[in-house]
Amino acid sequence: MGETHYPGDMDEIRFYSRKLSNEEIQTLYSYPLNRLIPDTGQTISHMAGDDGSYSINPPRYTELSGSLIFDNITNLTWQKNDSGTSFKWSNGDAFDECNNSIQGGYSDWRLPTIWELNMLVDFGSRRRALTDDFFSTSNNVWSATEFSSSIAWSLDFIEGEIKRADKTDSKVVRCVRGGVRAGSDLVEVSNVILDKYSGLMWQRYASSGEVDWTIALNGALGCENLFIDNYNDWRLPTIKELISIANFEASSKPFVFPKFRGDTESARYWSSTTRMDQSIRKWRFQADDGTTLYSTFTNDRFFRCVRGGIVE
Predict the structure, then answer these.
(1) Which of 80, 127, 224, 262 has the greatest count of CB atoms below 10 A from its CB?
(2) Over 50: is that where the pLDDT of 2 sits?
(3) Closest to 84 measured CA to CA, from 129, 141, 127, 125
C-alpha cells in the first residue's frame, strides 16, 4: 500500500495511508493554508463504521481577547457573538456589518461562505448545533454564498441545516476572518479524486443504486468493505465532509463539483452522521437542491465513500 498520492511535503502528510505522528499532526494543523474539515462532534456510535466510530480532526477552539474564537483546525477566526441584529442580504447590510467591523482591532472581517459556516455546526449536540462552550446562540445566519439573483444560502444553527433564503429576509450574521474557504481543489487520479484542500480521497463514481443506510455503511458493497486502488480504509463520509464537495455556486443541479461521476440530478447521498435527538434518522446531502436534511435509516439513498483525515 503506497504512502503518498500527490507530490509535495504537505500533501504527503495529507494523503496518508498510516497513522500520523504527533509531530506531523501539529505540522498539518499549523499549516497556514490548511482546509481541514473538523469533526462533527459526534462521539456516540450506533453502528460500527458510523460517524461516532471515528474521531477525525476533532474541533479545537481557542478563545482570544476581544470576544474572538480561533479555530485551530481551519485556521479561521470567528466573532464569539453573532450580530444580535438582523440584516438583509439584498441591500448589502449583511456584508457591511462584517466589512465595517473592527472587533479585536482587526479590520478584515467578512461574511463567511456557506462552507465555512457549516464547519461550525456541532452535530453531537442534542439541543442546538453550535458549541456552547465557545459560541453564543445563533438561529438562522446569512452566508456570503449566492444561489441566484434573489436567493442566497443560509444556515439554521437550531437544526444544523443548510437552507436557501430570499435575500430580502432578515437574518443575523457571524463574521469571520482568514483565508476564504469556498469549495474544493480537486485532482482526478485513476478511480479516485483527491481534494488538495481537505486532504480527503473520494470515490470518483457514486454507488450505482440507492440502498439503506446500514448497507451503505458496512454492507458487502458498502464503504467499510470497499477496496479501490489498493486501499481498504474507506468509510462513509460525515455530513461535513459531504458538504465539502457540494458546489453551492452551481447555476443548476446537481450541486456537486463536475469531476465527480454518477451524480444524477435527483441524487440524495447518505452521510455517516446521525441526528442526535432522533437516532433512527441519518443526515443526508441533497444534490438536487444543495440542502441538507435527514432520513430514516431504512430509506434508500445513494452513497460515495471517502478516506483520509486525521483519525485520533
Answers:
(1) 224
(2) no
(3) 141
Q: For the chain, how many helices (H) and strands (E)? A: 6, 16
Task: Compute the distance between CA of residue 157 and CA of residue 116 in angstroms, rounded to an integer.
Answer: 13
Question: Residue 10 falls within a domain, yes or no?
Answer: no
Q: Does residue 287 lie in a domain region?
A: no
Nearest residue to 185 via CA among 257, 253, 240, 238: 257
Residue 72 sits in which domain range?
A: 61-177
**Assigned domain for 118 exists:** yes
Q: What pLDDT is stored for residue 182 in this prediction? A: 62
d(CA 27, CA 146): 34
| Whole-number pLDDT of residue 23 | 67
Asked whether residue 111 is domain-assigned, the answer is yes
> Could you give the CA distance from residue 305 to residue 205 in angstroms, rounded to a whole number?
9
Q: How confident is the model at residue 101 (pLDDT cuts 50, 70, 90)?
A: very high
Q: Taking the model in full, what pTM does it have?
A: 0.86
> Residues 47, 217: contact at Cβ < 8 Å?
yes
Report the domain count for the chain: 1
